[in-house]
Amino acid sequence: MLQITNLHATVADKPILKGLTLSLNAGEIHAIMGPNGAGKSTLGYVLSGRPGYEVTEGSVTFNGEDLLGMEPHERAAAGLFLGFQYPVEIPGVSNVQFLREALNAQRKHRGEAPLTGSEFLKVAREQAGALGMDMDMLKRPVNVGFSGGEKKRNEMVQMGIIDPALAILDETDSGLDIDALRVVGDGINRIMRKPDKAVLLITHYQRLLDYVKPDFVHVLADGRITRTGGAELALELERDGYKELAA
Question: Whole-model pTM?
Answer without folding.
Answer: 0.89
